[in-house]
């Protein structure tokens, strides 16, 4: 059983989520404010956090940033849950390290599918040591260390997973749907536009090495050597 922390100030929504997750076999804890999230996870680690964006005291973006800044909580998966649907808000959450983003109103079935997908990726994240060294890029995926021309590059969790999957399948064309399935963990609940946004940001961060990520018009992307 996985332990899930639900951080939601709307009592009815929190109750529904907790009930549904418990029916799915998870252990659920709840908080209604953002200020106690970090200390709660220090005392009782969780396998995943469902985090509302609009919280009293400390909003979800600040909570996400605080969790990613602490060694003990930096790798805890986060699904953001919010009424904000603008692309800028979604990108802000993803850039701060959220693993997924669900907008209200939502279906509990969809949320449960996203939870399963994130937990699957977390369980599969114990791969053997893989180091890629190219002309500009050096990526030690086991150590989570990426550098370009000797300079360290900081990537979000999603950008890191995207780069790893592209490198693992280098010289092969990967469709947007394939990337959604393998990097995001599901196919139906997120727009392929998100893939384009993440690839664009990844290219920009990789500088000279970003040219190795090619767009194959009408098909998808390819990491070339």
Question: In terms of topology, how is this protein built?
Answer:
Blueprint: E1 3-7, H1 11-23, E2 27-31, H2 37-43, E3 48-52, H3 60-69, E4 78-82, H4 87-95, E5 100-103, H5 108-123, E6 131-133, E7 137-140, E8 145-148, E9 151-152, H6 157-168, E10 174-175, H7 176-184, H8 193-206, E11 213-216, E12 220-223
Parallel strand pairs: 1-2, 1-3, 3-4, 4-5
Antiparallel strand pairs: 6-7, 7-8, 8-9, 10-12, 11-12
Helix pairs in contact: 6-7, 6-8
Describe, in plain words, how this protein is organized in 3D.
- With 225 residues, the protein is α/β, with parallel strands linked by helices.
- It folds into two domains: 3-123, 3-Layer(aba) Sandwich (Rossmann fold); 131-223, Arc Repressor Mutant, subunit A, CATH 1.10.10.10.
- The chain contains eight helices and twelve strands.
- The strands form three sheets. Strands 2-1-3-4-5 form a five-stranded parallel β-sheet, sandwiched between helices.
- Helix 1 (11-23) links the parallel strand 1 (3-7) and strand 2 (27-31).
- Helix 6 packs across helix 7.
- The longest helix is centred in the middle third of the chain and has 16 residues, at 108-123.
- It is globular, with a radius of gyration of 18 Å.
- The N and C termini lie far apart (42 Å).
Quick overview:
The chain has helices at about 10-25, 35-45, 60-70, 85-95, 110-125, 155-170, 175-185, 195-205; strands at about 5, 25-30, 50, 80, 100-105, 130-135, 135-140, 145-150, 150, 175, 215, 220-225. It is α/β, with parallel strands linked by helices and about 220 residues long. It has two domains: about 5-125, Response regulator (Rossmann fold); about 130-225, Orthogonal Bundle (Arc Repressor Mutant, subunit A), CATH 1.10.10.
